[in-house]
Write a structure and sequence with these properties.
Layout lengths: L1 E4 L14 H9 L3 E5 L10 H6 L3 E3 L2 H7 L2 E3 L6 H4 L7 E4 L7 H10 L2 E4 L14 H18 L21 E5 L3 H12 L3 E6 L2 H11 L3 E5 L2 H9 L3 E4 L14 H5 L6 E4 L20 E4 L2 E4 L9 H22 L1 H7 L1 H4 L2 E4 L2 E2 L2 H7 L12
Parallel strand pairs: 1-2, 1-4, 2-3, 4-5, 5-6, 7-8, 7-10, 8-9, 10-11, 11-13
Antiparallel strand pairs: 6-14, 12-13, 14-15
Helix pairs in contact: 6-7, 11-12
Amino acid sequence: MRIGVPKETKVLEHRVGLTPGSARELRAHGHELIVEACAGQGIGMDDDAYRSAGASIVATAAEVFGQAEMIVKVKEPQAAERKMLRPGQLLFTYLHLAPDAEQARDLIASGAVCIAYETVTSSSGGLPLLAPMSEVAGRMAIQAGAYFLEKAHGGLGVLLGGVPGVDPAKVVILGGGVVGSHACHIALGMGADVWVLDRSTEVLRALWRQFGRPLNTVFSTHDAIEHHVTTADLVVGGVLIPGAFAPKLVSAALVKKMKKGSVIVDVAIDQGGCFETSHPTTHADPTYVVDGVIHYCVANMPGGVPRTSTFALNNATLPFVLALADKGWKKALADDPHLKNGLNVAVGKVTCRPVADALGYEYIEPDSMLQ
């Protein structure tokens, strides 16, 4: 199969769909790689590294899209990229379609086969292609929160870990999944007073076993959210419903009651965010203020550390890329029900129920597309 890797075009997005090491693995399986010039520059991998791995370098994204049978990316295709997709072409990347009606409409119109990293599942019930970026984003959330709590950046002027004789900052984490557990790890390591809220007692028990008494665990209710959010210095939103809109856990009225100069980091912003006052931002302009509360809602947080993120992502995606390339998408999905769960749009049909429900499309069973 001919596989194409374009350079990412989202604002300050420096990750790349395949590393030279991944390209070499695909070449060993007999596949052809086409990589846009400078696609790996943001992770310190120049064109010669890809050439050494057996890839061909082309000058433009149009050449990549025009020649490749499968496109492997990181972020959702931007408007100009969506125009280059063609019927039957395979797209493998993050999509986050539920809050993005325009992208969904374009992908449906393209006739392409679109498999989303974020809805591929695992036998254990997890999301293996979302997990590595959730790990990165959870850790970055605390770094970003600590930075914007500094007075020079508009915050309260609070040191996350405090000092002897002075209280540390209170960090509240909504959701104890992958984002939440990694946010806990960094926040506790920095000495903060950390509280995590979740509706699963099993999740809370697992976090207690992992971190012990320094972590405060709370069963999530409306009362608990209101109490802890309004007394927090930093609130991290990390709640996810696979493929669907993130639940709005914190209303605009509740944000108004928060401390002035406190910080919200909404890691769920890719799926619409879990704060009513959230809207997507970029690394170029990461924050805005609502009712005195700083909102950090960067929609591609892991793009801020592209080298770490790219290698972590490739570790997870490469086996699936190999399966798709070796078998073709229909057989690969028929053989693997977890990869089949990643099929969001296929030849003009919506094949992911949460996306169909969120955007008002008819839902088509993925199996019907594999005949």
